[in-house]
Amino acid sequence: MAIISNGILGTFSGKVGSVIGSSWKGIDYIRSVPKKVKRIATPNMLNQQAKFKLVVDFLNPLRKFLTESNQGKNLRKMTLMNLMTRKLLKEAVKGDLPSISLDYSKIELSQGEVNGLFDLRVDVKEKDVLFNWKAHPKDKTENPEDKVVLVVYNAMTQKFQFIQIGRRVDQSHTYKLNENVKGEKIVMWIFSMNTEKEIYSNSKFIGEFVA
Questions:
Q1: Which residues contact 93 (CB under 8 A, 6 or more apart)?
Q2: What are 84-115's pLDDT values in tens digits?
Q3: Matching InterPro entries, A to Z (predicted)?
């Protein structure tokens, strides 16, 4: 809708049909409404859009966790989601359409000051994933009560589970792959967490498994 100044013969501002009236530095002018041009997506544009969607779909369920577990990052004017999206696009996306996928080994879910698990060993026996670790012989700052958390990602359903598998002092855990639907792809990371200070260790990628 346009506004007419000084009667019907005066100037107007706003839109009338295909014409826009406006003013710049005291000069009244009119111009035509720009035509909408439909951009045809190039193969490169479609490729970039597919990569972006892949990363965002992966990160969206992790928004709250990422905020809590990456508190030490200097974000300046960039949001954490933007930072993680940018990082994954650069480091963790492989291939091009129609075969774009994530390299899960390049993804770090948490960063922090807590020590990771010392001498962590992972073995697979049939459908069991066996975790074993030790107390650090020289590090007296380790808290034996730190929680040990396993992140289980189902690549088929795109859902995450955060499972507390014990404390640092426990030094072992067995995860049963058959708790998932047979044939589904399961991806795992592990990290330690000091619940009193609410700080985390850097996450460690464990591997990809088939249930």
A1: 51, 54, 55, 100, 101, 102, 103
A2: 999 999 999 999 999 999 999 999 999 999 99
A3: DUF6266
Nearest to 114 by CA among 146, 155, 83: 146
> What is the SS3 assignment for the chain?
CCEECCCCCCCEEEEECCEEEEEECCEEEEEECCCCCCCCCCHHHHHHHHHHHHHHHHHHHHHHHHHHHCCCCCCCCCCHHHHHHHHHHHHCEECCCCCCEECHHHCCCCCCCECCCEEEEEEEECCEEEEEEECCCCCCCCCCCCEEEEEEEECCCCEEEEEEEEEHHHCEEEEEHHHCCCCCEEEEEEEEEECCCCEEECCEEEEEEEC
Six-digit token pair at 66? 């990422």
Residue predicted with more confidence, 82 or 2: 82
User: Where residue 78 falls among pLDDT bands split at 50, 70, 90?
Assistant: low
pLDDT, position 23: 65
pLDDT of residue 7: 45
Q: What is the pLDDT of residue 180?
A: 84
**Cα separation of 75 and 78, whole Å?**
5
> How far apart, in whole angstroms, are the C-alpha atoms of residue 201 and residue 111?
6
Tokens of 137: 């012989």
